[in-house]
Structures
1.
Amino acid sequence: MITIKVSNLKKYFKVYKKEPGLWGSIKSLWKRSYETVKAVDDVSFEIAEGEIVGFIGQNGAGKTTTLKMLSGLLYPTDGKTTVLEFNPWDRKPEFQKQFALVMGQKNQLWWDLPAIESFHLNKAIYEIPDKIFDETLAKLSKILDVEDILRIQVRKLSLGQRMKCEIIAALLHNPKVLFLDEPTIGLDVVMQKTLRDFIKTYNKEFGATIILTSHYMGDVKELCERVIIIDKGHKVYDGKLADIINKYARNKILSLTLENSITKNDLEQFGTVKSFKNNQATLIVPRKEATKIASKILNQFKVNDLNIEEVPIEVVIREIFGAKKIH
Amino acid sequence: MSLTVWTVIFTSNNSAFGYSKESMITYIFLVAFLQSMIIASSLNGLASRLYSGEISNYLLKPINLFGLFAIQEIADKIKNLLFLFLESLFLFLIFKPIIVFPDLKLFLLFLIWSFGGLILNFIITLLFGSLGFWSPQVWGPKFLFFMILDFTAGKLFPLDILPIMLQKIIYLTPFPYLSFVQIQLFLNRLNSQDILKHTVILVFWIFILGTITNKIWKKGLKSYESVGI
């Protein structure tokens, strides 16, 4: 079943450009230049029930804007969105009770109150029955290991503890659709791992459909089979994460350990030498010829160890964005 | 302060501008009461809450936004009422004023009109707040509004001491319906024709401004940028 359907979605913002300084401010009183920013430009995709999809893109690519439109916060300039067969913009309570948006940089918890108070508020808002509330809260706080901090003022909690409480607040009503925007931002590696495991469990247990945006490729690699890459408001890739490498990586990495000492020049005929030290070398070679080159090297030199590896996915994605010319 | 000023005026005269000393003191107490009940609002910072994207949290949840604002208003008014009670008790003990109460029928109508005034002010506050969808600079118009309100709602002085021409102009605005007409009713200074006229106009303002506010909010939410989150 298709849970989320987006067709030709667009969101344009009109922004005013101000020149710096006092004179710029004064000038702006009578003359202003506006510019239309195409935050999301003609994006379409479908997400099936129970899928975890990663949204990848640079800052300002339009990831959060898309999530906000899917949540009914922003009114699309054009295009159509359907989530659980609702138009998010209508903000129907029946829809709102079935989804949650978690943003790593935002609080929904009351700053001066213990998290448990905010949970009770959400219980009332989402009309969660007592029994289900108690059960869900007990379960979530156990998995995320926050049982002993629920009664401490939120302002006194650490970032990680707060984030976990935010997640609990968002999940108390057992949403079927979950939008996670940078959920692991600012968390240490242990906490990131806990959160990832938790998201995975939640997805399996409730069959929840999840869209995740993250700057950490680790999050995406571990959680999402499918990714949608957005660049400057456009969708540039939609498919399996593993296929990105096949599709976009032009090179492979050859790592060698040589028995005899040779010069860097000897290797340069085979490809770009990335590193060369103490008889250990890393070469970047064209993907299609990797095996051929490897066998040539094996023939010419005495090699102790040879490894052919894929280029890291981060690098491939960076290449897609054209931010940096690589390999 | 106005209590002192008017007490001084009434030491030499028994009546001024058609108000007896008792009615004037009642007037002053009523102004204070209606100020807290009608004009004071917890939603004065609404525009900046919109502009900063703070309301996003509420927009995501199954809550009626206007319902939420209304409840915040009611909570605020209850708090005001408590303080007002303590304050009035204190002033009563000092000035020992005689408050002239109208008959029950008028008093009930007074309560209804006050409630109407409260709704009207709520709508006007939402209207001002909606500017926050487009600009954070609402302080200017809001300040102007409060200044005008002080003079036209009858807060500083009864409107009927003004020249007739000025009164007529003021009655073309919704402001006298935010305190002044209610007080006139309480003091039994309106005839049945006036009562009917003011009831119609009060309902008219609520309806017109309510419709405009509703339209502007719908438009505003469409251009809401939900920043900061």
Note: Residues 140 and 210 of chain B are 23 Å apart (CA to CA).
2.
Amino acid sequence: MSGASDVMIVGGGLMGSSAALFLRGHGISVTLLETDLIGRQASGTNFGNVRRQGRAIHQLPLANRAIAIWRKSRELLGADIEYLQSGHIRVCYRERPELVGAMEEYADKARLEGLDLELLSGNALRDKFPFFGPDVLAGSYSATDGHANPRLAAPAFARAAQKLGAVVHENTKIIDAQKVGEDFIVTAADGRTFRAPILLVTAGAWGNALSSQFGEPVPIVPRGPNMSVTEPVPYAIPPAVGVMTPIEEETVYFRQVARGNIVLGGSTRGPSYPDDYRAYVLPQNTLSQLKQIRRLAPQLGKLNIIRVWSGIEGYMPDSQPVMGPSATTSGLYYAFGFSGSGFQIGPGVGETMAEVIAKGATDIPMEPYRIARFAAQG
Amino acid sequence: MAEPRIIIVGAGPAGTRAAQACVAAGIRPIVIDEGRRDGGQIYRRQPEHFTRPYEKLYGTEANLAQAVHGAFDAIRDRIDYRPETLVWNIADRHVWTANQTIQAALPFDALLLCTGATDRLMPVKGWNYAGAYSLGGSQVALKSQAVSIGHRVVFMGSGPLLYLVASQYVEAGAQVAAVLDTSPFSARVKAMPDLMAVPSVLWNGVKLTRVLKRAGVVVQHGVTPLEIVGDADTGVSGIRYRDGGGKEQRIACDAVAMGYHLRPETQLADLARCAFAFDPLTRQWLPERDGDGRASVEGVYLAGDGAKILGARSAEASGKLAALAALGDLGLPVDKGEMTSLRADVATYARFARGLARAFPWPAAQAAALPDEAVLCRCEGVTAGDLRAVMRETGAKEANRAKAFSRVGMGRCQGRYCGLAAAELIAAEAGIPVEQVGRLRGQAPVKPLTIAIGDEE
């Protein structure tokens, strides 16, 4: 037996790392097990949007919980994860004027959840954001959203958890998980085993491999984000920018980091290979993204991209994560399948899962995330 | 059967000879090259309207340069030649190209990567100042534009290119303040048996040192670079180093050309998903290939200095050999006897190249000794101290992990210039062998790609 603790977490992304930190806050001993290195896949390769607007309304309480953590992240983590509360603007195109109504409707509902959005169009929009192209019709601006550096975030949470006593094992691929008596026993590929009475699965695209061992398969699909970054240019664009559209190809977004590079994302998603631990950006997806970026902000056409990347994300058919207790096995909890939009809520997920495990309850509505919603299909 | 689609990337000595072999077999290959003209780096051709003679431009290599250019000119009409074109990605047996904003996806049955080499650079404090150049860059200035990088130039580093470019500067009438070689002379003596493999090239090297001697240029061996003196506004004003006897010296200059032999441009092999292996002699990761140039990925072939630094003569042989291997694999008749003879040539040059690697070793310890304030990654402005601090805080000791946390190697050049030194610094700091640090994964685009790509459609 290599290690025993109160809680074992399998999956060292942002969810698992932040859960480890907050579990230590409750005085619970915790072991975090990661196949590769902390935060290398979905948590480290995503766009970095710390964005509440645009989320399902029922996710906003979780998002609000997360934003409070993002705001104090520097003190909490003792590290700079480049969080900027510099705003988020979501726009729609002239071709789809009906989306202005959808934006207004969303803003009304979001306000009830504590998220204030400002709707802008015409000169008001262009005065504030002169970089938009002529196709852009209107926008919804959230002053309290922003962005952060995904490469730094999850590792900083894991290091902070370690400083508080969490045990972190990287390069530890779990190939088997069982409940034996009151304890879960998980086995790594190299034969090491770990034991704890509580198991939290935060394994992203690999989550189904573990939930299936407890009779709860879920229809998760691995995909990879389509990301690019430009060379650095003088800092001029504070907010993260995104497009609201029903067409996947049009769904692009960008943000400028303080150093000056502009990170571009979206348009399509690529294939990813969880078994090989690799994901690739397809060249045609890069071209489709750049075309859509030119439409959104034509002046960006003057810049070069210097790098593209992807990672492995787990998508659920309803775009909602699997989060909460197992329906089959006591002491087993899940938080995975964040469907390409887990970064902002990540720290809130960690805090909420720690609360559920430590106290047995939370005020955060968890109904939409129940794993049992897939049971009928199984 | 349709004509096999062969794509050759690079129009230097390897690419030219590969294309020539394809044409001889009745195939019209696509030849893609970033340069405005063929010839590659080593035989870079002057702009069309320039008229300097071969002897002047290429010195001891004039005949070889002329032969390679002549070979290219002779097949020019029988190949699909695409100059000034970047291969920015490879996927699903297509190469993706960009020529300004024009994009194309070209399918291939065989892909020959003849991507050449760039300077292997070792950072030194002050190498970010205006006036600090790579040896290759200073040679381009001379060959292509007929200009010197400064009024008074110090050549510093190691390797044959150090002497070649310094002598070319002397012969062009530039003032060369000194040639400072980090390799001890004893290393050259010890490497002599291997260097004797190609006596003519060895003799050319001797001739270069004579040119320098005749011109009264100070040549020192076994030096340790300490600092390129200067400031951000006015650029380079001098150089500080320890001589072979351990005594600190200072030389005034307004430009420095630096390089430590060469490193292969392997990013396309990486994007083609070829397997790599660590080469302990040069302390570099190289794409694996068989004796004829076949990479680990079917249909991908590697030749010339882009696969391993074996020199321009070897590139001609390995380019042709890889093309014959590809043609044979595609079911076309090839001259087996010629392949045997090319293999023998490549083996001879490989022995010579091993001698060069031993004569002019990469001074890995200098990376470890970089002062904290020295810039390590010029693209991202990351200092040696920044990287050390990140390692202490995060425990990162794998190349890509250190990059993710510190930005070393994350800029425009993707670590092509700082990556090898950064790996040495990480290895020294972590107390592990450099091969355990791993290698930076290549990512598309290999060079910056305009967002306006495809805009004309």
Note: Chain B touches chain A at residues 88-89, 91-92, 94, 96, 103, 105, 380, 393-394, 398, 401, 404-405, 407, 410-412, 414, 443-445, 448-455 (CB under 8 Å).
